[in-house]
Design brief:
The strands form 3 sheets. An 8-stranded mixed sheet has the order 3-4-2-1-7-8-9-10, sandwiched between helices. It is globular, with a radius of gyration of 22 Å. It folds into 2 domains: about 15-210 and about 380-404, Rossmann fold (3-Layer(aba) Sandwich); about 230-375, Glycogen Phosphorylase B (Rossmann fold), CATH 3.40.50. The longest helix has 25 residues, at about 380-404. The protein is about 45% helix and about 15% strand. By secondary structure, it is an alpha/beta fold. β7, α3 and β8 (about 130-135) form a beta-alpha-beta unit.
C-alpha cells in the first residue's frame, strides 16, 4: 500500500502560511486546500491561509487563521469560477504585516495565480523559505484550448502553434517554481521534471479522499431493469477531453445498447455542446458535499477521459464510493489504479464501459478493490506526510544556512 513506511505522527510542527489561489472553488486544489486547513485546525497546528474572497478581513478559528483578500474590479476569469486580479499586489504591505505577526517558518504557495505571485513576493521580501506545489498542467490545458480555437487553421500550422505555446508556457511555469526553495508535485514524473529543470529539491505530495463522506451505497441496487449509470465528474472543458463521452455513447449505441444513462457532474465551456450531442444524459451542474457523494453512489462506473490531469481527486472519490474507474494508462499510473483490479486502463472508453456493463461480477469485484485502495488514502495520512516533508525541507534550508 502507498502508506507503508510512512510516519503516522508529526514530531516537529512548523508554522505555515498557505497562499491558496483557489479555496472554495470546485476543483482539486480547492479541495486539498480546504482539507489541509481542517487538518491543521483539528490538530491545533498553526496555519495562516491567505486566499481571495468577497472582502478583506482576518478571521480566527482556533489555530487556524484566514486572511481573505478582496479582488478588484480588474479581476478577470481564467476559468468559470477562478479569477486573477492584476491589482492584488495592492494588499502586499498589509499581508506582510500579518505575516510578520504570524511568524511562519514556511510559506506554501499552491500555484502561479494572483495569490501565488503575492506569496512569492512576500516570501522574497521577508527572506522566508517557501515551497511551491504543482497541481495543474497549465501548459497542456492552454495548448488544448488553443488547438480548439485554431480549428480553421491548416493542421501543420495548428500543431506547430500549439506546441510552441505549450513549450513557452512550460518554461514560464518552471521560472515561477524556481523561485521556491523546494517544490511538491502529485506524481513522480512531475517531481522528477521539476527537479531536473529547476535544480531545486522536489518531493511527492500525496493526494487523499474524505473517507467519512465518500463510501459505497448502503445497499446495492438490483441490476434488473434499471439503467446502467456511466458517471463523469469534473470541469466540462476541452482539456478534460469530454468529447470522448459523446464518442463513447455513439459506440455504445452502434453496439445496440440502450439501457444506460450518463450522469455528468460539473460545468464548463463544453456543457452546451454535451447537452446537444448526448442522447441519454443527466447534467447536474456542480455538486458539493452529500449531494456529490450521493451522485457517486448512483454510478456503476466512472469514465475519466482526461489526459492532462496531474492526479484527479475525483478518481479517489469515486473509488472510495466503490465505483470502478475507466481511464487512460497514463492517468491510471499517476493515481496507482491497477488495471483489471480496481479499474480498466484503456483509451477505448466505450469497450471498457461495455465490458463492465455486461460483467456484473467483475464490476462488483473491481468496486470492492477500488474501495479498499481508497481506504489507504485518507487525508490524515496525506497531511502527516506533508508536514514531515515541510520538516525535511526546512532542515535542508537550515543546513544550507549554517554552511554559508
Amino acid at each position: 500500500m502507498v502508506n507503508q513506511g510512512l510516519p503516522t505522527s508529526v514530531e516537529f510542527v512548523p508554522r505555515v502560511a498557505l497562499f491558496a489561489d483557489t479555496f472554495f472553488e470546485a476543483n482539486g486544489v480547492g479541495t486539498l486546500s480546504r482539507q489541509l486547513a481542517e487538518f491543521a485546525r483539528a490538530r491545533e497546528f498553526p496555519l495562516l491561509v491567505v486566499r481571495g474572497g468577497k472582502q478583506t478581513c482576518l478571521s480566527l478559528n482556533g489555530s487556524l487563521e484566514t486572511l481573505e483578500l478582496k479582488r478588484s474590479v480588474a479581476a478577470f476569469p481564467v476559468d468559470k469560477t477562478l479569477y486573477f486580479d492584476p491589482l492584488l499586489m495592492r494588499h502586499k504591505q498589509m499581508v506582510i504585516d500579518q505575516i510578520r505577526r504570524f511568524k511562519p517558518d514556511l510559506i506554501h504557495i499552491t500555484g502561479p495565480g494572483d495569490i501565488g505571485f503575492l506569496g512569492v513576493r512576500v516570501a522574497h521580501e521577508l527572506g522566508l523559505p517557501s515551497v511551491a506545489s504543482w497541481h495543474t498542467n497549465l501548459h497542456e490545458y492552454l495548448s488544448r484550448r488553443l488547438y480548439r480555437l485554431l480549428n480553421l487553421m491548416p493542421r501543420t500550422l495548428r500543431d506547430s502553434a500549439t506546441r510552441s505555446v505549450e513549450q513557452h508556457t512550460l518554461q514560464a511555469l518552471m521560472r515561477f517554481y524556481k523561485s521556491a526553495r523546494f517544490t511538491l508535485a502529485p506524481n513522480q514524473s512531475m517531481v522528477d521534471l521539476l527537479q531536473q529543470r529547476n535544480g531545486r529539491p522536489s518531493h511527492l505530495m500525496l493526494h487523499g479522499v474524505d473517507l467519512e463522506r465518500y463510501k459505497p451505497a448502503p445497499c446495492a441496487l438490483p441490476d434488473g431493469g434499471r439503467e446502467f449509470c456511466i458517471g463523469y465528474v469534473g470541469r466540462l472543458t476541452t482539456e478534460k477531453n469530454v468529447q470522448a463521452l459523446v464518442d463513447t455513447e455513439q459506440k455504445m449505441m452502434a453496439a445496440g445498447e440502450k439501457n444506460y444513462r450518463f450522469l455528468i457532474v460539473g460545468e464548463g465551456g463544453q456543457e452546451s455542446w454535451l447537452r446537444s450531442h448526448l442522447q441519454r444524459a443527466e447534467l447536474t451542474g456542480v455538486l458539493h458535499g452529500d449531494a456529490l457523494a450521493a451522485a457517486y453512489q448512483r454510478m456503476d462506473v466512472l469514465v475519466f477521459p482526461s489526459q492532462t490531469d496531474t492526479f484527479g481527486l475525483v478518481l479517489l472519490e469515486a473509488m472510495a464510493s466503490g465505483v470502478p474507474v475507466v481511464l487512460t494508462a497514463e492517468t491510471g499510473k499517476r493515481v496507482r489504479v491497477e488495471d483489471g483490479i480496481s479499474g480498466l486502463l484503456s483509451s477505448d472508453f466505450a469497450g471498457s464501459t461495455l465490458r463492465l456493463m455486461h460483467e456484473p461480477a467483475l464490476r462488483e469485484a473491481m468496486g470492492k478493490a477500488a474501495h479498499a485502495f481508497a481506504c489507504t488514502q485518507g487525508w490524515d495520512m496525506v497531511f502527516t506526510h506533508l508536514y514531515q516533508t515541510y520538516e525535511e525541507g526546512l532542515r535542508v534550508e537550515m543546513q544550507k544556512s549554517s554552511a554559508v
